[in-house]
Amino acid sequence: MRGWSFPLGRWMGVDLRIHTFFLLLLGFSLLATSLNVPTWRAIFLWGILLLAVFVREIARVITAAYHGVQLRSILLLPIGGLFSYANPDSAERASEGKVQTSMALVGPLANFAFALVVGALILGASPNVPVFAKPLVTPLHLMRSAVWLNVILGALNFVPAYPLDAGRMLRGGFSRAHGAVKGTRAASGIGQMLGLLAVLGGIALLFLPGSGLGTNLSPWLIMGGFFIFIGAQLEDQGLMFQSVVDTVTMRDVMLTNFATLSPSDTLEDALHQAIHSLQDEFPVVRGANLVGVVSRQGIIEALRSEGNGYVQSIMSRAFQVAQPDDSLGQMIRRMSGGKMSLVPVTEGGRIVGIVTLQNLMHSMGMLAEHRRFKREG
What we know:
Helix 1 packs antiparallel against helix 2 and helix 2 crosses helix 5. This protein folds into 3 domains: 154 residues, no CATH class; 67 residues; 127 residues, CBS-domain (Roll). By secondary structure, the protein is of the alpha+beta class. A hairpin with a 2-residue loop joins strand 3 and strand 4. It has 13 helices and 8 strands. The strands form 3 sheets. A 4-stranded mixed β-sheet has the order 1-2-3-4, sandwiched between helices. It has a two-stranded antiparallel sheet with strand order 5-6. The chain has a two-stranded antiparallel ribbon with strand order 7-8.
């Protein structure tokens, strides 16, 4: 979820991120300034779309909490948000038919309700404002645009293209019939196909003679199809990653040749040992027992600020421990949002390996080559 996205902070206990393509839309909105449209109106039109996505995602977060589904993060796209769940139980809970249906319906309904509220405010305060005038969405009339952007976003999510809301219900049906992996792959494939068809249809409409239908509808088809295609690809990549890491155990990727420190080591001794090691994080052991974790950067900062001391004074006692046969996917889901950079692997109370974010990519690459070599051999 973090690739090609930027953090927007933590809301209601959920990490919120916005995808780069959403920000690119702001650039397209600013192109409207070349058509004698004030810059602030173009920015506000983009902000209204962001607000429409916020409205549906807030409703979905509240619904998820009501059903006991814990979320880790939301990635905002112009078509809605992609959820990441805090634990496997929540992911399984969210896939249940009743929960999935309510979360699929609440997003579009929230957009429709918000559109009705804004429309009622317009009619009540300024009944002469042409709510149904065309173009429905324009930076020259922001209140009317607020109504129709919410209507369009709500209606769009009834298209059975994954990862739209109706597409998620389709995925649920496929998953119950064929299993989670095959069901998600099938729904993602349909979503990518429909997204591509929408883009091609929008391009074809540009060359449609006669009325202004092509000019008015084409940009929406192209943008909607593009973001459906991207969203389906993101979900497909996430599934591929999950299916791979669930087949890898900690034993497969752990470092077995690693350095350890003792709580009674001085910081100067620890720094000297760090010079001769590629590790950024070190397990701290007392005898055969793992008692903490300390980082190279922590050693340096402590020496600079407080002078020489002992490792036990700066080591972290909060860490996750894995077993050799734990799956990598299981461990990643327990790693508290990626904040932990070292996981000690223990067997019978004795540390037998470590997995670090630093070595994980290298180890996964080598493991893939090893498995391919065994298959070809």
